[in-house]
Recover the amino acids of this structure.
């Protein structure tokens, strides 16, 4: 008996030791401040973390605890969001301003503490206040636990590729001006790869990202679209890649020569250096889904490029250039968005929940607002109205005195209502441009109307794009959860003919889905994470004018399904 007790105790100690070895505490300090860089012939003051663009990469393993001390030495209110991290029982660390916390004011600090649980792959962090995300962002690289391997051959190297957007202006002023005029923000001046615009832009011959490879080796590219308002095609000349994960979820291997990545999305691909020794451009250019519409949504038509250089390549060799997709190549974009599937049985794979507790049909798109005080409303859209956006004809307004999570946790009334409509208040021909001739359909009332659901309930949402003002592909991001993307299509969603198209076997899982231009997407998730979770368009200009909502997930029945109190250093409004 004593020997059995000894063996059991020894086994328990081994388990504890294994857990200790496989999980660590990763601690960083983020100093947010202004500094000056030179891009596109201009010296520009930007706000960044630790004087770097992109900011520092966080390299962790599944199970690790992160402690990030954020010191705001900038002149702006700001927060940091850990995009795609579940924040299981740590909603206070999620970061969206006025949703889970008040802003970190200039001169103040806040420490974010959370664990990476049941996630592997690539995510990223970014500011969640105004347009600061343009320069306040960086990669989150989540490797498997110790002694766990990837579900694909181990790569020779891992390479973060952060796609971004650059303005020759103060990005906070860009948003402030747009809101003051009641119009969309000014277009960016360039796209970037790992902070560099590339040699197609003025004064940028020596400001291009370069990555050196060895012939025959395979590299894991962790690609992040950190752009503020642009879907981006990404290609490498003469090379195919194999997609192995999206949004930190493993996929079945998918071979392609082109990717399209929406703001807020990540794609992990294997690149094998199997071409003749030489140099090959990589490119990123805009997928401008709304550019071909009657309204003609303006976009930045430029291309950024970096270069893959094989070991032994001559420096005098001109790199090969890929044929970049046309800016309105919706067939190519839709093919990539819809053909990815989950790796069934892979680590952290979750089967599709089949019983649905709450079904929602939600319109998403732009709208109009009666010209507010102190707004000129002199530009597009019609004079006398301000550009707005809505979900189910509700244009979301953030609280001003208390975050939604604080109001929920402390049961404070008057901050929000839980009457967000599960269906459009008026049914219409959603994708028919002629609806713009019906003025009452164009204006969306403002409100802080959200949805409350019980713990562990299953939510299905059909997101329907509308042609109000103009159709456009909207990247919709849900905080706190990944969801199954059951189906996507064009036109008005038809339950009779489109429901049979649902993939209930191996649909891709994401935290950000692109609702097709003039079309729809269906997602499903289990609300198993108590707290308040923001859902919004990841075009910052659209989020700022109301293309958002939120979910309250009630506490579960046990202490380990109950949201703990806020940390003592939580910023106050």
């Amino acid at each position: 008996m004593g020997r059995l007790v000894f063996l059991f105790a020894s086994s328990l100690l081994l388990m504890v030791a294994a857990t200790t070895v496989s999980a660590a505490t990763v601690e960083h300090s983020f100093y947010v401040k202004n500094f000056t860089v030179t891009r596109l012939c201009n010296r520009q003051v930007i706000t960044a973390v630790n004087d770097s663009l992109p900011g520092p990469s966080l390299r962790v393993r599944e199970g690790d605890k992160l402690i990030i001390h954020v010191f705001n030495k900038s002149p702006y209110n700001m927060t940091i969001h850990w995009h795609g991290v579940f924040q299981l029982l740590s909603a206070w660390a999620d970061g969206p301003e006025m949703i889970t916390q008040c802003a970190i004011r200039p001169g103040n600090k806040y420490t974010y503490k959370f664990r990476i649980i049941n996630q592997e792959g690539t995510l990223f962090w970014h500011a969640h206040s105004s347009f600061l995300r343009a320069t306040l962002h960086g990669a989150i690289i989540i490797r498997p636990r110790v002694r766990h391997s990837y579900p694909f051959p181990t790569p020779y190297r891992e390479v973060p590729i952060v796609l971004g957007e650059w303005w020759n202006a103060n990005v906070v002023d860009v948003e402030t001006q747009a809101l003051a005029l009641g119009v969309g923000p000014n277009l960016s001046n360039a796209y970037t790869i790992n902070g560099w615009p590339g040699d197609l832009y003025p004064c940028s011959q020596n400001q291009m990202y370069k990555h050196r490879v060895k012939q025959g080796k395979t590299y894991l590219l962790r690609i992040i679209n950190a752009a503020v308002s642009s879907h981006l095609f990404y290609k490498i000349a003469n090379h195919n890649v194999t997609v192995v994960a999206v949004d930190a979820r493993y996929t079945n291997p998918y071979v392609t020569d082109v990717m399209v990545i929406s703001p807020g999305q990540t794609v992990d691909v294997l690149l094998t250096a199997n071409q003749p020794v030489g140099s090959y451009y990589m490119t990123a250019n805009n997928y401008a889904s709304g550019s071909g519409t009657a309204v003609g949504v303006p976009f930045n038509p430029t291309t950024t490029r970096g270069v893959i250089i094989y070991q032994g390549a001559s420096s005098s060799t001109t790199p090969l250039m890929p044929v970049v997709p046309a800016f309105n190549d919706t067939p190519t974009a839709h093919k990539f968005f819809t053909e990815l599937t989950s790796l069934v049985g892979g680590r952290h794979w979750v089967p599709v929940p089949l019983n649905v507790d709450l079904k929602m049909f939600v319109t998403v798109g732009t709208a109009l607002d009666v010209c507010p005080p102190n707004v000129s409303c002199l530009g597009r859209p019609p004079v006398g109205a301000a550009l707005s956006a809505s979900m189910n004809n509700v244009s979301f307004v953030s609280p001003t005195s208390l975050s939604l999570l604080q109001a929920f946790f402390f049961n404070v009334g008057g901050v929000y209502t839980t009457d967000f409509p599960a269906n459009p208040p008026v049914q219409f021909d959603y994708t028919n441009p002629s609806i713009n001739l019906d003025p009452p359909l164009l204006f969306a009332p403002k409100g802080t109307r959200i949805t409350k659901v019980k713990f562990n309930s299953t939510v299905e949402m059909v997101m329907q794009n509308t042609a109000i003002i103009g159709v456009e592909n909207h990247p919709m991001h849900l905080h706190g959860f990944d969801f199954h993307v059951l189906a996507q299509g064009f036109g008005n969603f038809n339950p009779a003919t489109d429901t049979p198209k649902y993939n209930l076997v191996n649909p891709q899982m994401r935290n950000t889905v692109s609702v097709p231009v003039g079309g729809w997407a269906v997602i499903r998730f289990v609300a198993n994470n108590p707290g308040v979770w923001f859902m919004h368009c990841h075009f910052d200009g659209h989020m700022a004018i109301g293309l958002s909502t939120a979910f309250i997930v009630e506490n579960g029945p046990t202490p380990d399904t109950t949201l703990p109190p806020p940390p003592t250093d939580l910023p106050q409004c």
The first helix runs from residue 2 to 22.
